[in-house]
Amino acid sequence: MQAFVIPPPPIASVAVDGEPARFPVRRIFCVGRNYAAHAREMGSNPDREPPFFFTKPADAVVDDGAHIPYPPETKDLHHEIELVAAIGAPGRDVAPADALSLIYGYGVGIDLTRRDLQGQAKEAGRPWDWGKAFDHSAPCSPLRPVCAVGHPARGRIWLTVNQSLRQEGDLSELIWPVADVIATISRSMALKPGDLIFTGTPSGVGPLVPGDRVQGGVEGVGTIDVVITERG
């Protein structure tokens, strides 16, 4: 048995709908500006340029129903509702036609973003990590296996704050569908079981404050419900 000089950290994981066993999380990939309306609201051209990515640490995942402390060093925390694809089989240089075979299941995620820090990084030409990859920044609903939901290519995606609709779109509006996203990532690095892919958010992203209840969902996949609390 391998010995370590310090205790190894717990394995980050996501719940699986109807199962006591959980899905271990290895890495979290996120696709930037993958809905045209959101690209426009962020001041970008929505033309079908190659997808780009950022990452979050595995232990940024937060379960459905969580109370999430408002993060430090920001005054502009934003919500971004997303379809999440969970990778269950390895793949490298995968063709789009074969990419969906890698997926274990799907969930609903919220890409929490420190928008002011992200904006500062953009202006300085620096990485987005401090704006995107912080503690509790990747809430995720229980996953539903492909055998239960298939591969959703269309269906409503939405988010409310205190029951007021903020974001609404359809999966058919993805600039780069899930298969293309997987194929693109796999050309750069090997995808492996445990990887999560947050596939992009529709327009309507906006600020959150302590006390806000954030609910969202993807038609045919599931829902998520979290609360933003005072700073920890």
From TrEMBL:
Matching InterPro entries: Fumarylacetoacetase-like_C (IPR011234), Fumarylacetoacetase_C_sf (IPR036663)
Gene Ontology molecular function: acetylpyruvate hydrolase activity; metal ion binding
The protein, known as: Fumarylacetoacetate (FAA) hydrolase
Sorted UniProt keywords: Hydrolase, Metal-binding
Ranges annotated as spanning the membrane: none
Fumarylacetoacetase-like C-terminal domain boundaries: 28-225
Keyword Hydrolase recorded: yes
